[in-house]
Amino acid sequence: MKCKLKEICTFRKKKMNVADLTTETYISTENMLPNKSGIVNASSLPSVDSTQAYEKGDVLVSNIRPYFKKIWKAKFNGGCSNDVLVFTAKENVDSDFLYYVLTDDKFFAFAMATSKGTKMPRGDKASIMEYEVPFYDVEVQKKIASILKDIDTKIELNNVINNNLEQQALAIFDNMFPNISNAEKTIGDTITPKRGKGLLSKNAVFGNIPVVAGGLEPSTYHNTANTIAPVLVISASGANAGYVSLWNIPIWSSDSSFIDSLMSDDVYFWYALLKKRQNEIYDAQIGSAQPHIYPQHIASMPICNLNFNEVSNYTSVVTPIFEMIGHNKDENMRLATTRDTLLPKLISGELDVSEIDI
Fold this sequence. Notes:
It holds the Pfam family Methylase_S. Belongs to the type-I restriction system S methylase family. InterPro entries: Restrct_endonuc_typeI_TRD, Restrct_endonuc_typeI_TRD_sf, Type-I_RS_S_subunit. One of its GO terms (biological process) is DNA restriction-modification system. By secondary structure, the protein is α+β, with helices and mostly antiparallel strands. The protein has 2 domains: about 1-135, DNA methylase specificity domains (Adenine-n6-DNA-methyltransferase TaqI, Chain A, domain 2, Alpha-Beta Complex); about 155-320, Adenine-n6-DNA-methyltransferase TaqI, Chain A, domain 2. The chain is about 35% helix and about 20% strand. The chain contains 8 helices and 19 strands. A 4-stranded antiparallel sheet has the order 2-9-6-7, covered by helices on one side. Strand 13 and strand 14 (about 220) form a beta hairpin. Helix 1 (about 95-105) packs across helix 4 and helix 4 runs antiparallel to helix 8. The longest helix has about 40 residues, at about 310-350.
């Protein structure tokens, strides 16, 4: 038996004061991550008095370019931009089940197929509510959601562990290099990041190599890399210009600059240095409509006269930490693949959960 999406949920229409929000509780399309990867803190709050409210348990979906698959289940109350749809479950509908219904790739494909606009397609709210979903009683809903949520819980745990491990590596950096920013020299005296090579999504050849451009997540995937892992990447343009990330696998650096293991044996040292100075890098952005960070911005940053034996020692100490982070990231990719394989089969009823005791 099937029903329409509007039969199991509604759009929340409540408003709230922006003055009551923080960068942790405000959600916009910019701080929602693609490929169902959740959220990060907003860079700023909107300059309006009020905005759309959401409540814990609601499902937030970016309504701009649905193919980015930006979705998050709220863990607290807050507010969001008008370009974010806020779904709230109706009575006798499990909120976790609703989340997984909306996480299904079929939903995003439907949202794209019924969207309006070409350059920046937006989902049509009325059409979205006509999306067909299987109807189950609430106990079956909970069983389906429980199976998928167990996987997501493990992914979240790995993310928490990785954050803790990185904080340890950064704390070790602070202890070993307390005066690193003393302006005796510049980073460019030792190393200058290389500029990546532009690659549009339409020109990418299908593969599993992340293409790292100006966003927080890969813009697409390609069949070859232009870096050697480990590699640190600095986003070059857009709202996140200057964002520093570390990759334990080879990537294609596109709208970004990078330092990889072919350029330095101490990639982890340079990553820690730049990550500790993330805000300083953001402040160096040039351009208003389209902010940019170039390799010369990184090269001009002041540092002390480095003791390269200490740099090598730091690399030796933290390499096992960053390798564990990489291991957890790899496991998360496998878990996400398993979840995304099971999800449509569970939602459609192809996999029967009626006999499962949860």
